[in-house]
Amino acid sequence: YWMQTWSEGTAFKAMLVFSDFMRHKWAYEFAIQDLMALFSVFAADSSGVRELSFHWNEKKQDYVARYAR
Known about the structure:
Blueprint: E1 2-8, E2 11-18, E3 28-31, H1 32-43, E4 52-57, E5 62-68
Antiparallel strand pairs: 1-2, 2-3, 4-5
């Protein structure tokens, strides 16, 4: 991933994120206030994964999460 931030004066306003896989097609923009709200969801105790199951996917030649609780 590649990330670029920008500010207006001294205020941190937004972040652009480019994935390595789709770097020539897509950029994702996150307003800092939205990013902070997203981080607070992940910081909550209820967001923790307590059970996880994977299965082998022949097409992808990799393990894929079946479920996460």
